[in-house]
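FORM 7B: Structural annotation worksheet

SECTION A. Query
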Amino acid sequence: MTDLDRSFMLRALALARLGLGSASPNPSVGCVVVKRGGIIGEAFHTYAERDHAEVRAIRQAGKQVRGATVYVTLEPCSHHGRTPPCADLLIESGVRRVVLSAIDPNPQVCGRGIERMHASGIRVEIGLMHEVSERMIEPFACHIRTGRPLVVAKVGMSLDGRIAALDDRNHWISSPEARSFGQSLRHELDAIMVGIGTILYDDPQLTYRGREPKARPLLRVILDSMLRTPPDARLFRPDSPGPVMIFCSPGAPRARRQRLERAGAEIIAVPCTRGRLDLKRTLRILGRRQVLGLLVEGGSRVHWSFVSARLVDKFYFDIAPLVLGGGRSVPSVGGEGYGTVQRAPRYRILRHFPAGTDMILETYPSYSRSILSPWRPGEDAPSPSRYRPDTSRKK
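SECTION B. Predicted structure
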């Protein structure tokens, strides 16, 4: 790969980034068509426009596309879905070379598009800046392989791991920059979840308030076994957009259910075990609703429920430079705890970066299902070497 290849892939990745917030439930993809060192077509995918990035970029290139090089952030599809296969379009268009960043994790594709293009005589090169493109399709990859959303937990806490002082509900622990990062997660993911304790304690709206456009309204999910959510909560205000879904116990009072449904909530009963809602069932339901990524923002007991059930795929710890101390302040992860160090799951820090005065740690538990997990050996993805083109064949 040359420096010129990298520059064109950087452009394709920048285009793909523009699709975040508008491509779901499809992956965000960017495509650039190049001929004689110049861009003749480029596009990114949005779900509302149906056509994939490759289709729009090739259409823009027009008749010049024959003999061109195509840079695309994700393997072109090889199956019929909402649109015909993009791999077939590239073959029919007469492109000479395709440089792709990441292999499609969709089992219906996963190398088949590459094989089809290679068999037609197109030179296919794989893996350029794949770490960046895989980050953008992380929720899609988890959902397409497991049927459940990628679970991203986030907590803002003090240096000593506390999220709130008992008698002080009105002050942020996190810096403005860290809160802005939280909004970026709400922009990229499809749903946000909190427990009933957070609703009663903070009365949050749970809305997306960032500047970047978000085509799909953020689904607001509440875990509330006995339906104690107040019907006049700020969640239901007219200026608080996005659907509200509340998961409850089958034994929740019927009258409360009716009041919340009149307020605008969708109520779904799931089984309980030892007083806890079945989180695996909850995630399966969200997966069937095409929720690719779920942001879990707490509170303390909800974080413990997900951690102890080994359902967190990625955990962001936003650490503010202060110490709350005391036995009555609220821990970032509450619940029963593991009791011994040996029983506690291990996490690896993939990235850390400042956010104003705070430091954010991006961590992955050992059981994470994410394609980015530093624990995974990568055996689930096809090896790029498997699809290395035969350079001896005539083009």
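SECTION C. Observations
The CA atoms of residues 143 and 296 lie 16 Å apart. DSSP finds eleven helices and 18 strands in the chain.

SECTION D. Sign-off
Analyst initials: ____
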